[in-house]
C-alpha cells in the first residue's frame, strides 16, 4: 500500500475517532457536573439527553457567525481553525492499542509513530497558544485582548513546567517515542504491581496540573473567566466559529487525559483474556478506561475548585512547579545513573 | 517527487513571510510573518530528516520566542509609536550593505558545495536522529556543549543580577 494512502487513512481515522469522542465527552461532562451539583442536566434530546451535543452542534452550524466591525478579518477567521487543527494533530502520536496483525503485516494502532513524539506534542501545544492570542487580538476589543494576554503568559509558564515534568519520563524510558514509552511500561514490578511510570509520582502530578493550565480548565480558566472578562478570547465569536473553539477545548482535554494515561498509567497495557481473535480489543479497552477515568477527574476538579487569582497562578507556576520539577529531574537522573553505572565509589 | 512539492511550497512560504515581516506596517503582522518563516524552516528540516532539529525549532523559536514577542507587542500596545525610539541614522544604507554582504557570503559558500536533499550525508538512520544528536553533544563535543550551557546560564544570572541589584538609577515610576 502506498505510504500516502496509509497516512491518509490513519489521519482520517484519528480525526473521526476524536470527533465522535468529543461529542460523547461534552455530554459526559454536562451529565457528570450535573450529578456533582445535584441537578438533572440535559435530558430532552434522546435517552438521558445523549443527543444534546449533536443538537447543539446543528444549532451552532445554522446560526449566523457575527463579525464585529473592527476585527482583523484574516486572523479572526484563522484563529478557530488553528485551535481545532492543533488539537486534532496532537492525538496523531498517541497509541490507542497494541499492534494488530492483519494478513501477516503488523500495524501499529497510532496515527504516526514519530521518534520525537513527545517533542512533537510539546511543539503543537506551543502552537495552540497562537489560536488564542490571534483570536484575542484580532477581535479588536478589550476583553478578548485581556484574555489573550493572560493566555500567552499562562501557557508559556505552564508549558515550561510541563516540559520539565516529562524529562524524567524520557530519562526513564530512554526514548522520546511515545510507542516506546508505552512498550517499556508492559509487565509487572516485583510480580505484583504494574510497571507503570506512575512511580514517577511528582512528574505525574506536575504534568496533570500543567495539563489543567494548558487546556485552560478550572481552576486555571482565567483566560475565559466569565465574571471578569466576559468570555475572554472568544467573546466576539458566535455560531460555528465559536463551536470550533469549543470542540478544540474539549479535544484538548481528551488529549491531555490520553497523554497522561499513555505516559504514566501504562497506556494500553493490562491483562488480556479470551481467544486470540478477540485479544486485540483488550488493550484498546484498557487505554480508553484509563483515559476516561482521567477525563472524569478533570470534570470532578472543575466542579470542585474555585478559580485561582492571577498572581497566585503565576507564582505557583514559576516558584513552586518549576523548582520542584528541576529538583525531581536531578534526583531521577542520579537514580538512573546509579542503576546503569553503579555507585560512584564502587 | 512529493518531497520536492513540499519543499517548493514551504520555501515559498518562508520567503513570502520573511518579506512580509519586513514590509508589514503593523508589528503584530511582522511577528506573524516571522512566525510563518520559522515554521516553514521547521518543515524544511523535516524534509532533511532532521526531526529533532525541526521539533526544537518549533518549540523554541516558533513557540516560546514568538509567543514572547507577541506578548510584549500586545503589552506595549500595537499603536504605541513612541515606544520604538528614534531611528538609527543611515539605517537603510547599512541594511543594504549587510544584506548584500550576507548574500555574497552564501553564494560564495554555495560555490564550494550545495547540500541538497536528505541523502546529502548518506542515508541517515531515521530511528536514531535524537540518539545521534545526543551522542555528538555528550560524546564528541561535551566541552563545547557545557561551555555554551555555562555561557547561557551566566547571561541569565547577569540579567537577574541587573534586575535585582542595579537600582542605583532612581526608579522613575516611584517618583510619578
Question: Could you please describe the fold and organization of this structure?
Answer:
- The complex is a heterodimer of chains A (346) and B (176).
- With 346 residues, chain A is mostly helical.
- Chain A has one domain (69-341).
- Helices cover 66% and strands 4% of the residues of chain A.
- In chain A, 45% of the residues are buried.
- The model of chain A has no long low-confidence stretch (mean pLDDT 83).
- In chain B, helix 5 (129-140) crosses helix 6 (142-165).
- The termini of chain B are far apart.
- Chain B has one domain (2-175): NADH-ubiquinone/plastoquinone oxidoreductase chain 6, subunit NuoJ (Four Helix Bundle (Hemerythrin (Met), subunit A), Up-down Bundle), CATH 1.20.120.1200.
- Chain B has 7 helices and no strands.
- The chains are: A mainly alpha (346), B mainly alpha (176).
- The A-B interface holds A 4, 75, 114-116, 119-120, 122-124, 126-127, 129-130, 133-134, 137, 145, 148-149, 152-153, 155-156, 159, 163, 176 and B 2, 28, 32, 35, 51-52, 54-56, 58-59, 62-64, 67-68, 70-71, 74-75, 78, 126-130.
